[in-house]
Amino acid sequence: MAQELAGKVAIVTGAGRNIGRAIALALAEGGAAVIVNARSNRKEVDDLVMGIRQAGGGALGVIGDVSDPDQGKAMADAALSHFGRIDILVNNAALRREKSFAEMDYSEWREILDVTLDGAFHCTKACLPALRQSGAGAIVNIGGLSAHTGAANRAHVVTAKAGIVGFTRALAHDLAADGITVNCVVPGLIGTPRPKDKPEPAHHLTHGTISGERGRPEDVAAMVRFLCGPAARYITGQAIHANGGAYLGG
Questions:
Q1: Residue 115 buriedness (CB in 10 A; 0-12 / 13-18 / 19+)
Q2: CA–CA distances in Å: residue 66 to residues 54, 88, 108
Q3: How far apart (Å, rounded) are the C-alpha atoms in residues 116 and 161?
């Protein structure tokens, strides 16, 4: 499978850290040139871009808020200007907050949907003309376990991630004739670093994996890489869980 993505160009949103970073690295290891996006942390982006380039890959960092359609278009334009094509789009950027529905105001609800769901819409629209020209385009949307199990204090996050699954299925129908596959990878119970002031989400404490272990960002990234490659061209419209059986274990 080494270099199965050679000659391809990928955009990964929210790629500065954790799962997004692992996805960008996995696609670069597969031979793709990668647009590394983050909303504001330039250092994280620059460090990742430098690492990919030092390993012999192609990368470009783009700071941009995916909830802004103009910034989404600017990211696609940067990819085309620098690399000349777009073959892969990974809609990973998301916000995850916890607050009871009774205390949540509309601006807090809207903030989550703006980034997670509307951001995927804006980026897909911006990249679509180039993806259609690819001949073997791939869109991978990153979902969430709580969209399938539900979770307390996460009405906005659960709704946004459930919308991502619906978006995936609808796009798979709309874009099949263009040779574009569209799938959703659903991580669950992944061990990622968290700031001291942001504890692990409460719903993680009510679920366990049947494997008995937490996953790594690289476990999710491996599935994304596969879905972007030539061996997965017959897979589209699917929500694929990478969670050690957490969805089964309850």
A1: buried
A2: 27, 16, 17
A3: 7
pLDDT above 60 for 250: no
Strand-pair partners of 185: 142, 240
143-183 pLDDT, tens digit each: 999 989 899 999 999 999 999 999 999 999 999 999 999 99
Which residue from 77, 42, 76, 80 is spatially nearest to 61, judged by alpha carbons?
42
What are the structural domains of the chain? 9-249 (3.40.50.720)
3-state secondary structure at position 215: strand
Q: Which is more confidently placed, 191 or 198? A: 191
Q: Tell how far CA 39 is from the center of its chain.
A: 14
The fraction of the chain above a pLDDT of 90, given in percent, is: 83
Cβ-based neighbours of 230, under 8 Å, separated by 6 or more: 4, 136
Tell me, what amino acid is at 160? A
Say if pTM beats, i.e. exceeds, 0.90. yes
134 close to 92: Cβ distance less than 8 angstroms: no
pLDDT tens for 12-45 read: 999 999 999 999 999 999 999 999 999 999 999 9
Nearest to 1 by CA among 188, 235, 226: 226
Question: d(Cα 148, Cα 153) in Å, to the nearest integer?
Answer: 15
Distance of CA 32 to CAs 1, 72, 168, Å? 13, 20, 23
User: Which two tokens mark 232?
Assistant: 């997965």
Query: What whole-number distance in Å separates Cα of residue 48 and Cα of residue 14?
Result: 12
| Tokens representing residue 148 in the block | 């399938």
